[in-house]
Design a protein that fits this description.
Elements: E1 4-7, H1 10-18, E2 23-26, E3 40-45, H2 49-59, E4 69-73, H3 74-80, E5 96-98, H4 101-106, E6 116-118, E7 120-122, H5 128-141, E8 145-150, H6 162-171, E9 176-179, E10 182-185
Parallel strand pairs: 2-9, 4-7
Antiparallel strand pairs: 1-10, 2-3, 3-8, 4-8, 5-6, 9-10
Length: 189
């Protein structure tokens, strides 16, 4: 099927995510460390548990119970997650944070079985690309939270190069791929 390539626009990608599409992101430099932090990620709507099932089952071939982490606008953090009583950075998805009861109904796809989530807090100064996307997404849905998981297939490393990201997009049958300043898809008009 022929791929369409368009300029990336945060508002359009936010709309696609709000409509239930699942997309890959290969934006900027590759990340190093234990987590995908938005530069090499698969993003999806956290409001629908079927998104978690689709990503874990069909796309990543993982067990259904394996958690997916949330990207969360700083302004929405207190709405869904408990306050932490110590000095830790929530920029890197390293800590399991207790979810508030409303998280289970509003964003169930990122709430683990023990009612925690490995939250990545997004601000304009720490992740400007994700901040813009989440802000646009919140304009549509009223919620500044998305699923974030690494851009890789089972048993493979996280995508590093644009070519690797494109190959994962094709292999996993993602609905779209944001490749730096471009939106690629054969499913999006």
């Amino acid at each position: 099927m022929k791929q369409r390539i368009k300029p990336y626009q945060a508002a359009e990608v936010a709309r696609l995510l709000s409509e239930g599409l699942i997309g890959g992101v290969a934006h900027g430099r590759a990340e190093a460390g234990p987590r995908a932090l938005g530069n090499r990620s698969i993003l999806s709507d956290a409001r629908n548990i079927s998104q978690k099932e689709r990503i874990n089952g069909y796309m990543k071939m993982r067990r259904a119970f394996q958690p997916l982490a949330p990207l969360c606008l700083e302004e929405d953090y207190g709405r869904f997650f408990e306050t932490v009583d110590c000095e830790i950075s929530l920029d890197y998805m390293l800590y399991a944070i207790k979810c508030k009861p409303q998280a289970r109904t509003a964003i169930p796809a990122v709430v683990h079985a023990d009612d925690t989530a490995r939250v990545q807090v997004i601000r304009q100064d720490n992740y400007p690309f994700l901040y813009e996307l989440l802000t646009e997404y919140k304009k549509i849905t009223g919620i500044g939270v998305l699923i974030n998981t690494s851009l890789n297939a089972k048993g493979e490393p996280i995508a590093d190069t644009p070519m690797q990201a494109y190959q994962i997009y094709k292999k996993m049958d993602l609905d779209f791929l944001v490749l730096n300043k471009h939106l690629i898809s054969n499913k999006v008009q």
